Automatic annotation (TrEMBL):
Keywords: Metal-binding, Zinc
Binding annotation for Zn(2+): C82, C87, H164, H169
Gene3D superfamilies according to UniProt: MOB kinase activator
Gene: MOB3C
Listed InterPro entries: MOB_kinase_act_fam, MOB_kinase_act_sf
Protein name: MOB kinase activator 3C
Amino acid sequence: MALCLKQVFNKDKTFRPRKKFEPGTQRFELYKKAQASLKSGLDLKAVVQLPPGENINDWIAVHVVDFFNRINLIYGTMSEFCTEKTCPIMSGGLKYEYRWQDDNKYKKPTKLSAPQYMCKLMDWIETLINNEDIFPTRIGIPFPKNFQQVCTKILTRLFRVFVHVYIHHFDSIISMGAEAHVNTCYKHFYYFIREFSLIDHRELEPLPGVPAVRGSAVISPLLHFLSLLITKLLRHRQDTDHNCLSFLTDAWVL
């Protein structure tokens, strides 16, 4: 029986919804409108479109915060399976490795484990969306000129969470019966970033587009299993077979 993400989520964990919209604000009203559209059964392509008369930056801000909360929650559902031992590198299969960089401690791209990367990412996003200079909530306060560029960086990094979860931990999502919710969130996210061209198409290469989704899984269980199997093989093999196996795996995963 499929479960709601809130049912499989442990509220005591680090990963949980961190940002709420203040009732009575325009942002809250936009959020309610977006949620009502989602629950109405409308096609997700239509749901993400900018409502007539609304400000595009307000619309993007609402979705960035909502996606942050949802993806944070998704990772929280399976974070116990994503450990320093199972995921010593933040990656998406064999071809993609994601390194962390910020304006504080990590001035240069730095290799981190997946759990470390996720914690840094969620804290970094939380700081940004709570910054009134970047995500203003008061009436009359304009968005900064680089607002959409900031959102692009946030969404690009959030997409990497999907990449890691789908390629390395989708079996855990399936075992909890949460795959339908994760897939819906992914499709919603995908249509939104494509509608407003918010992520470079090269960043999307690790996962198939929504048209490739079949049934309840984005990546078939067989390919998922083969990807994990070969990943483990390559970690223990340094001989000439490496290049051949890597080539085959890239063809399967992408």
